Amino acid sequence: MVKTSAIAILIILASYGALAQSATTLPAFEVASIKPASLQEPGRVSTRMSSDAGMLRYTNVSVSDVIGQAYRVQQNQISGPAWLDTERFDIAAKIPAGAAKDQIPRMFQALLAERFKLAFHREKKELPIYTLVAAKSGTKLQRAESSTGLSIGTNPKGAHVTGQVSIQWLSDYLSTRLGREVLDQTELDGVYAVALTWVPDPAEEPGSLNGSAPAAPGPSLFTALQEQLGLKLVATRGPVEVLVIDHVEKSPTEN
Question: Does residue 135 share a domain with residue 116?
């Protein structure tokens, strides 16, 4: 599975017990088209998420993908019918002029409530997670004056991330990349310069590079974090908030 752009907006919400909000109380897209996606080649699932000139274009996305974008959760934090992952759609949505990027998840919440009639509640479950800690040799991070966000690039030869961000922001990106919550336990405050290059491993990064084998030798994301940033991911388990779907329509309402 390939996801380009918009990937770094995923962060974990900390509220509990909320139901899907009414679309009338949320910022909304000016107009949105939702159509069934075209059939793809057997054994291949390619998903693309992009934005330009005030438009979002999502191709071959599942409802589960959209819920993840809307409520800033990973796929293993969504509990619902199996078709949430198998039924796929193409979505084109116009962003209102002047709308801030951080309003886009709430626009997706409105879209899901209006077009798919989504309703859910929240529960806590014990799930696999990672903790991000400083390596025994110490971090190799340099402080930066201000945050710039992350620039993310992926191709068949490898992946890279650069920017100036907080460690919490980096943890949020790693959660998205690995499909598992990453808790920041570095105790590092402030903003740091990040430059990270690695070869995605399909076994460690579900869905990366269409699930193909690495085209060139190089460090995994886990190794690159230690060697290049002096940070370490530790696999463990912990309580994670899960969205339990109470109701969702398989066919969205008309465009």
Answer: no
Are the C-beta atoms of residues 109 and 18 closer than 8 Å to each other? no
> 222 by DSSP, 3-state: which?
helix
- Is it the case that residue 128 has pLDDT exceeding 80? yes
- For residues 60 and 90, the answer to whether their CB atoms sit within 8 Å is yes
Bin 75: left if φ > 0, else alpha if -120 < ψ < 50, else beta: alpha
Residue type, 50: S
Predicted TM-score (pTM) of this structure: 0.66
How many other C-beta atoms lie within 10 A of the C-beta of residue 75? 16
Q: Which structural domain range is residue 196 located in?
A: 126-239
Q: Is residue 254 part of a domain?
A: no
- Work out the pLDDT band at 14, boundaries 50, 70, 90: very low
- pLDDT single digits (tens) 136-162: 999 999 999 998 888 888 776 788 899
Give the pLDDT confidence score for residue 202 in this predicted structure. Answer: 66
CA-to-CA separations, 51 to 38, 143, 199, 210, 219, in angstroms, rounded:
20, 31, 25, 20, 30
Q: What six digits make up the tokens of 90?
A: 């193409």
* Total domains in the fold of the chain: 2
How far out from the chain centre does Cα 248 lie? Answer: 21
Of 57, 148, 117, whose CA–CA distance to 245 is shortest? 117
Q: Residue 101: what pLDDT?
A: 81
Is 255 a domain residue? no
